[in-house]
């Protein structure tokens, strides 16, 4: 790979991701060529008995899931059903909700009963649980953590599905305490997908959402034991493949990814392409919208998800390839420039500090609606332009080149900062083309910007317009110099990276991850 | 004033601004009604002898100005000329430039001679100077401060023209050391204006650029003495009026102001108005540009500078007033929302951390040009649309309402965070309508965004697009609710605030501050 495009930052060590493995679950090696090889844990319904063994080894008799948002219902039900499936009623799964929570009826309907102690006050239940999984919102966790941690049983293991809380502590100069073991299992899909694919796993072998895992044991001797509790949680909620990361790499790649091509970058790019093609097609807004948004989220994303990036490019007709490369060359450096700024803000925890402050202001100053005030998205809504499939024209090939340059810029930015390949490819490519973009294809990009997590909404509203501005100028600006163009082109034709992407794609479940027509 | 619009934040104390004064120079009280009253120092050429007395009291025999950028040439020459004027050759003013500096010939041409020690290596000269005034760029100061401070004579006083360095220290958890006295004199105009108005002061009484002053003495007993060194520096470079602030209030209001209506907000607003009026006037880009930019920076800014905000509004014809109010109502909350985010990022020093990191990346990744890639600014440049004066139409009254709502939102944001009235009105109104906006009227807003300080350029590129996005949606979005509209309208008709603005306007020099047709 071209050194100038991806020069790994030696100060960011991905070591604990690469030392990942299991003493109980079967593993396999992924021989990545562009990064270092990784070990992943192989799950599946036939491994559910091992879940019970891992919990036994760590003396886990009660598991508490706190919160009932996106991940809460999925993970609590999946874990309960897994333990039931292997005949282990002695390991109890319960749900913690405050007495005034509006989610209580939903948890009861899902089978968590107050009468038998499977549903109750989070602080009370925390004092009796051996594994406490925190599934409340990022801002909610910041609010409750002191009281929750005070209520913990000595020696309890604390779980998160996101590295945000660890990042929040860093942003205020603190660390996760060494009084408890902390683990993370981060599913690479939305909560409803975690539940839906788990249920599909009953009759489709390998169905389930892949997860990444991070571990901070309270002593080195406990590392292996605690790591297998995390693996058991991951396999228990249905992950066919589990890979390693660290709390801080996860929160960084996650916030960076949603601000970039998973959401913010995609939104800003659509707006920039809308302006760009409007100059050409004037008031024919249906055609302009196809090129700027629905063609990308539909036809192009389908093809990328099916074939991978380089095979998709090679499948284009010759004239289309030339137009694709023109879009790629024109946009790549602009994406890379904005992403470098985003990565710096996220990695330094400034972005987290900002989210925490802005979340506190939301009660007084709610976020305005993106879709309502925008010509482009209003037009698409009124005219029903979502969810269509269109043929690939030369102009759409150009737009695809712009989109793919954003995905490649995101892959390069994360690899250059030392993230492991599984995390990079999942956060930059698989989660985009298999999960979030198909969802936006059905509902609209602006709809997603208006309805995602608070952390993502706040970041998107800031960075989306910056992408739009930078890309608008890049699309209309001069072509890159010859040297620049060769460097950019080489970055697309990096065979090792595309082979690694394929290897990650091979680890995907055999069913569709996205659930476009259900709620988030 | 409506409490919801401006509720002062009690955690931000402006006390040291309000305890400002002088034991040597004449002062006068400004009886501000919306905030607390303030004391200002009255300068002028007839006070120059007091400058020498203040330097004598603090045993200042040599003054070093480090750097030759915007402020360096102005302040070094003005101080030298003032001391010459009062016959004090024993107090020497010298300029410190590194041996490889490309500015050396310019400093020599301005009369600073290497032979008599008035020009030389900054570290060497620092070891022999009693007052060391740091006038290098924000990033440059961060780079050299350790070596420069190490070279200082014991007991030397250190001066800045900006609170940035103190803010940088805060951003890395440090403070200005208590080994030295630190003072700040921040002129409310660009360096070339500081020089030009000083020269005008020879024949126009009261000509000169107003300054704000901050003081951190190394012991409470030295406060008065050191404060008068700052006052002497301010009066010595020609300030007719000097008012008090703190290092942190200055850097906050300065970075906030340039990211808001002084530059970033004005740019984003112009782009949003360009899109808004394009929907109406289609391809008649000359007219659209008039409404979106040159009408505001020309005719409207002239009128605001001459009359003040409320008198300008009252001078409009009845139909124009209605259109003005419509623009004001539609945009005010959008401006306020973005400004709240900016203020939070600046006040928490996140914005400074970001600037420092981004400055380091500039050698590898230079900032792209705003004007080159933009339809709107390219059109204006090609067609020569800058510097015109147009009559006020109904549409321009609407655009003026949008612009003024941004200025009012900025005033309200700073007042709500406890900044003193002189600082607020200077940073939000006077510096805009008297200095920066007229400059942009002649050269173009995008030109200024491409050519201002690194700190301002970095911030503008981030926040400009956010203003554009938020305002575009606000202009096309629904009207505010009745309650909201009353609250917004009241915020414009706040008589106390407009009286205070008038009082600040009365303190302005009697000559034009802006120098549109010279370099920065």
Helix and strand layout, with pairings?
The structure is a homodimer of 520-residue chains.
Chain A: H1 15-18, E1 27-30, E2 38-42, H2 48-57, E3 62-66, H3 71-85, E4 92-96, H4 104-109, E5 119-120, H5 122-126, E6 131-134, H6 138-151, E7 157-160, H7 164-171, E8 181-187, H8 191-200, E9 211-216, H9 223-236, E10 241-244, H10 247-259, H11 264-281, H12 285-307, H13 309-315, H14 318-347, H15 350-361, H16 375-383, H17 394-416, H18 421-443, H19 445-451, H20 454-476, H21 482-492, H22 495-506
Helix pairs in contact in A: 2-9, 3-8, 7-15, 10-14, 10-18, 11-12, 11-17, 11-20, 12-13, 12-17, 12-18, 14-17, 14-20, 15-20, 17-18, 18-19, 18-22
Tell me about this structure.
The structure is a homodimer of 520-residue chains. Chain A is of the alpha/beta class and 520 residues long. Chain A has 2 domains: 10-244, Rossmann fold (3-Layer(aba) Sandwich); 255-505, N-(1-d-carboxylethyl)-l-norvaline Dehydrogenase, domain 2, CATH 1.10.1040.10. Chain A has 22 helices and 10 strands. Chain A has helices spanning 15-18, 48-57, 71-85, 104-109, 122-126, 138-151, 164-171, 191-200, 223-236, 247-259, 264-281, 285-307, 309-315, 318-347, 350-361, 375-383, 394-416, 421-443, 445-451, 454-476, 482-492, 495-506; strands spanning 27-30, 38-42, 62-66, 92-96, 119-120, 131-134, 157-160, 181-187, 211-216, 241-244. The first copy, chain A, has a 10-stranded mixed sheet, sandwiched between helices. The longest helix of chain A has 30 residues, at 318-347. Chain A is globular and about 65 Å long. The two termini of chain A are 38 Å apart. Chain A binds chain B through residues 279, 334, 337, 340-341, 344-345, 348, 350, 353-354, 357-358, 361, 365, 368-370, 372-375, 461-462, 464-466, 468-470, 472-478, and chain B through 279, 334, 337, 340-341, 344-345, 348, 350, 353-354, 357-358, 361, 365, 368-370, 372-375, 461-462, 464-466, 468-470, 472-478.
